[in-house]
Specification:
Largest sheet of chain A: 4 strands, mixed
Distance between the termini of chain B: 40 Å
Structural class of chain B: alpha/beta
Strand content of chain A: 5-15%
Number of domains of chain B: 2
Mean pLDDT of chain B: 81
Mean pLDDT of chain A: 83
Number of helices of chain A: 14
Strand content of chain B: 5-15%
Helix content of chain B: 55-70%
Order of helices and strands of chain B: HHEHEHEHEHEHHHHHHHH
Oligomer: heterodimer
Shape of chain B: elongated
Low-confidence stretches of chain B: none
Number of strands of chain B: 5
Strand order of the largest sheet of chain B: 2-1-3-4
Order of helices and strands of chain A: HHEHEHEHEHEHHHHHHHH
Radius of gyration of chain A: 28 Å
Strand order of the largest sheet of chain A: 2-1-3-4
Structural class of chain A: alpha/beta
Chain lengths: ~375, ~400
Amino acid sequence: MLKYLIEKEFKHIRRNKFLPRLILFFPTMMMIVLPWAANLDVKDIDVAIVNRDHSQLSGRLAEKISASAYFNLSSFSESYNNALKTLDKGDADIILEIPEGFEKALVKEGNAKVLIAANAVNGTKAGMGSAYLASIISDYAIELSNQTVSGGIEIVPQNRYNPAMDYKKFMVPALMVMLLTILCGFLPALNIVSEKEVGTIEQINVTPVGKFTFILAKLIPYWLIGFVVLTIAVIIGRVIYGITPQGSLFTFYLLASIFVFVVSGFGLVISNYSNTMQQAMFVMFFFMLIFILMSGLFTPVESMPRWAQIITIFNPMKYFIEIMRMVYLKGSGLDALTRQIVALLGFALLFNSWAVLSYRKSR
Amino acid sequence: MKYSSIWQEVQTEKQIKQIQEMKQFLVFVRKEFYHIFRDVRTVMILLLMPVVQIILFGFALSSEVNNVNIAIYDPAKDQATQLITERISASKYFKVVKMISDPGDVESLFRSGKANIVLLYSERFNENLIHTGHAQIQLITDGTEPNTANAVTRYATNIIMACQKELLQSQMSTINIIPEIKLLYNPQMKSSYNFVPGVMGLILMLICAMMTSISIVREKEVGTMEVLLVSPMRPIYIILSKAVPYFVLSFVNLTTILLLAVFVLGVPISGSLFWLIFLSLIFILVALSIGLLVSTLVDTQVAAMLISGMVFMMPTMVLSGMIYPVENMPWILRLISNFIPAKWYIIAVKKLMIQGLTIDSAFLELGVLCTMATVFILISLKMFKKRLA
């Protein structure tokens, strides 16, 4: 029985001129485009320098800043107001004003002030930019005080797992999770409800097919689609971004298969409760948005306020993103992931039994 | 004489016809509203979505790094290391989770996700610092997230430098340059300043483009479109009557977002409200015309959803600059982003709403949006005539 039902589902998918293409092209496109776009790397900050001192020391400071990898010197202005205009136009992100008498004050008193003004509409850029700028300035002060930099405490920073500090490396595993969630979530959500709209659900309802078999037959195709999508994503990650999973591929696929059950089950629950595809679509969209935003994909979960962190406990996507990043980048094994695995299994059981129970063959 | 009276008759007949058409149009609009309101769940979601988004973006999402888990390896256990450890655990950025006794534990700490940074003192730290002037601290971070790793290293460095100043007071440098940092337009560094314009763009796009296209295609799919087309209404009015309710809905949402932004998130409207609304109306027009265009291209609801989802929603979220700055992208994506209406809308809203600039600084964006609206409407009208009339 199950075999024929699954065969039917695959025929549905194959006969649809849109779906097979979507399953192949969507992950490919997303994996090619997204890692480049989803980049919070703060580089190439445009800085406008207002040098009102015109001295040797202020000139050297300006040089030092434009030589840094983080900054692009966008303009030299004579007054702060002119610089502010370039910032308003969007040609500069940050202004450094070196006041008149800068050199004099440094030589005489050993103390001088400079002004950093950042366009904080983009908070990340302003925060990181002004901090970088401040650290270049304090390096410069140390240089000037003729003190050997190596004196005192030597700090040796080291970044594990991602020494080139490549943001793409961080995003690729998480974007795979997003792909799986979108495809294996939306397609099942539209599935049962589309049978309702077209009317074919009645034909299933008059057969002796059990609820459990019916739902299982709906789930398995998406489970396989999930594998296809994931494999495409892994290959692209390897070919384009040179990222290979540090952990074992087995762990990786095993956990992904649990996750696909979670999201497909969730999609089917929504499909069961909806009357039209439009409705299913929007309800799914609503939850998807919350899942994605609260998953730590874009902003770290640790920086959320307490109440928001409590909400994320109920977000299956959060656990799988943690798993993917740990397995992919750090090579963590199953033993380090018990908490996340238990959570995912719980969600899989919950959503799928809910999907079976909420499917009604007769009203 | 006779001629002119006939002319008059024709005139009045024309007027009557116009009035009738107008009435018919309003009836059609009412029908669409019934369609929408009958589906309570969708309406609820449409009205709730902006509220949830604003709250999430405004309160929950922040890229500020704090409460970082740190583990410390201290073989020296002397005055200097104790001072630094104390300062670090007192700082709001760090939470000391473990004192490790073996530097080899670093790997397993990172793998299990228990610590994000490990600080390792060199042996005989204080002694070396005082006698030779050399002591070493290693800061090993979990670099999977580069921004966090960078920020964490900087916080730790600042704390250590301050301690060093205290420990080596006599030998410290005499030259100081004190930077005074001013954060323009967003002094409290609220991320909502960045997100509110983005949410506005996303929601308006979602409702207008996606909903309109789906609702038109639905009539095609179910077959009721034929019924509508044989009515005496001109086809173009049938389509327009579908757009009107979504126009109204998105205006309601626009108002909700602005009210929430101002009164809940405390994001000011520093520029002129009139121009902000004018700009939004133009953007809504663009989105509606995209919806119409999509509906003329496809025949099934699934296709309409997927096209508006993949071709319009995803790019709006990713390439418009609402989450990720456009300047960071490679040139090809920057080029593509120019064709995304939401990008221009978001830039203009930031200028008008948050920076409080006057409308002439947003002329370019306004012009681009107007052009897009015209082009999309013209194309969809042409396609529409081919398909239906």
